[in-house]
Specification:
4 helices, flat, mainly alpha, single chain
Length: about 90
């Protein structure tokens, strides 16, 4: 059973690392003028938006966050990914 848990946590860790990299790519792409129909942009958004959207929905409930000029949902989602990735080895 220990082998299964190790393989599972390794897979989850790899998945989270890939998601983190895709979020960094999304951040970098937002700084440059990229065509909205770009297949790379569409892929990155399709992979990262399911993680960011629930955080955005929760944060939009707060009037304080709504008044801010930046979208904090990306940063909070990235932080949550880091926390999960850090806590994952403690599960094993």
């Amino acid at each position: 059973m220990t082998g299964f848990i190790y393989v599972f946590t390794s897979f989850v860790s790899l998945f989270l690392m890939v998601l983190e990299m895709l979020m960094i790519v999304r951040m970098l792409l937002s700084w440059f003028p990229v065509d909205d129909d770009s297949p790379i942009l569409n892929f990155v958004f399709a992979m990262t938006e399911p993680l960011i959207l629930p955080v955005r929905i929760v944060l939009e409930r707060s009037s304080t966050v709504q008044a801010l000029p930046i979208d904090l949902s990306f940063f909070v989602a990235f932080l949550l990914l880091g926390i999960i990735q850090t806590a994952l080895p403690a599960v094993v």
